[in-house]
Amino acid sequence: MHSRSSVRGSHPARPRRTRRPLRAAAAALLAGAIPAALAGTGLAVAGPAAAATPTGPPPVTVLTAGADHGQGDIFISPFGDTSSYANGAEIINNAGHVVWFHPVPAGQEAADFRTQTYRGHPVLTWWQGTGLGGQSSGTDYIYNDHYRQIATVQAGNGYSADGHEFLITPWNTALILAYTTTTANLTSIGGPPDQEVIDGIVQEVDIRTGRVLFQWNSADHVPYSQSQQPLPASASTPWDWFHVNAVHLDTDGNLLIDARDTWTTYKVSLRTGKILWQLGGKDSSFAIKAAPGQVLDSAGDAFAWQHDPEAVGHDTYTFFDNESSGTPELPYSRAITVRLNEHARTATLVASDDQPEGLSAASQGNVQTTRNRDLFVGWGILPYISEFSPSGQLLFNAEFPAGVNTYRAYRLPWPPADGRH
Fold first, then answer.
1. pTM for the whole thing?
2. Of 400, 397, 361, 398, which is closest to residue 381 (Cα–Cα)?
3. Which of 83, 199, 321, 347 is the most exposed place for a label (fewest CB within 10 A)?
């Protein structure tokens, strides 16, 4: 479906950048990265990432060209087929050519690579670690526009940062996620009295001091009965009943916390931790509807197994709608737009852009609204990234090699400090 609404807000224009020449390679090498001139050559690079072999990123093949319009370069974190390519954080241009690549050590991966603003300056941010998608362990990194590390962020209170989210707030704190395993009595839902469960943790962390300013645990606010994930056969097998995968800011400064395994996005007070409303799943605060031309899934929901809720203003939100955890609720994944009516307590699916190849992504994915209101989509475990116009036209589509994907993908402006790109 490609029926689009006209609800997306406008974004301020930023200046174009010119292409960075090779003489900027020295600064990139100091950061342990591979500039465009060396990417894909197989040459070893001195620095902390040198142990990773091979050292080059996977090629990106552009299937449908276009959609640049000065909106920025493409930020990805390719992962997979490490016998041929390195995992890492990567900037590519609209032709799929490497602008900058930062390989991570063998056995690790990068995730959620993008530009953000920290203390008034543009920065590069990503998570780096192991186990993304499970009980992961890692560190969040901040690099300046000279491609030099200026800060790291760790989870507090004994937890380890998960790679699903690293968001810098307008007040220069970090919103991050973590997972923790505990034991729960599930007899009220037909489970054992001593089931191992995986709870989702959201933290706001002071970047400078590492102090935890806010913490939210899914088990304190959401009943286990809301899970769509079947109980495991054994009580000793951890039950990933919630699977937190995103925390974003709504337009009023409160949180949007997404749980893949309850099919629900929760709006949560950043002050008290109280759930203000929940969208989707077994206990939605809103009745789910479809606008003309739009289709709900087989469960009558707008989304299932979803990722990445983003507020775009006027009570309107975008989601990456996986519609699958192995058994699809729809035969394809899609980027969707939902409009809420909080007075009437309705949620209307107003627009959807289907995966161009008609495929279903059983994990990962994101949807970003660009400065000119296009939708830029990372198709998660599928080896594709795409861009759609506000009317639903496919403007850009690109493909990784088989076995390679990126957790999220963004199109963002990036002005390096040397003024060249």
1. 0.89
2. 361
3. 83
